[in-house]
Amino acid sequence: MAELEGKVALVTGGATGIGLAAATLFAAEGARVFITGRRQAELDAAAARIGATAIRGDVSDLADLDAIAARIAEAAGRLDVLFANAGGADTLATIAELRPESFDEVFGTNVRGAAFTVQKTLPLMPDGASIVVTGSTSASRGNPGFGTYSASKAALRQYARVWAAELAPRRIRVNVLVPGPTDTPGLRGIAGDPAGVPALLAQMAASTPLNRVADPAEIAQAALFLASDRSSFITGSELFADGGEVQVFPAA
Q1: Phi/psi at 48 (nearest 5 deg)?
Q2: Over the chain (252 residues), what is each successive 10-residue block's mean pLDDT?
Q3: Of 26, 116, 146, 149, which is the active-site residue?
Q4: Is 149 a catalytic residue?
Q5: Rounded CA separation 104/54 (Å)
């Protein structure tokens, strides 16, 4: 039997990158999948490719989150798997360069967005549901320029611990998936100029003992494990799918 046969899953940020790969795999494993994103054209294309239901929405907007939860409630009546994956940082800044607007944007999407995605969809979750939150190896490192992004992902790690305790009486498991460098549009965007992408990918590959970046499909497999009953005795944890970046090269 497929890993998620008969389950209902929501993947936020599901139109590209890791979210798209996870949504594709969840659907292949039998789930009825809903995906969200801010860009309608990308979202519709992804939904058509997967066979998922697209719901346009910004996770930092509470009205959008209410609409997403209402749409899932009407269409499916429940939510067995939440992959709170939406997030990122369009710009990086040192403490000297940090602007309040960029701080609010990063924390608004990465922390506020994830927290209220969980809150708004929680009434749809049956006992035994699974929540997976996308973390980052940046939360374990001190890379210059990544302070706000790193802090936002560290906040999610602590939220997951607390949520795991709060939701344990309902057997709802909460775990953090920590990808290493993964070949996604978001990662490539750090280069700024497309001509700089090969050098960026080579630099990122060198940060891992496996000496390569991940394919999004590899991270999706880890998401599937945490979403499925195979991880039934795992909650409040971090699963590092990082090619050894943090565990083997902690000071790099």
Answers
A1: -65, -40
A2: 95 96 98 96 96 97 98 98 91 90 94 98 98 95 90 97 98 97 84 84 91 96 98 98 89 52
A3: 149
A4: yes
A5: 27
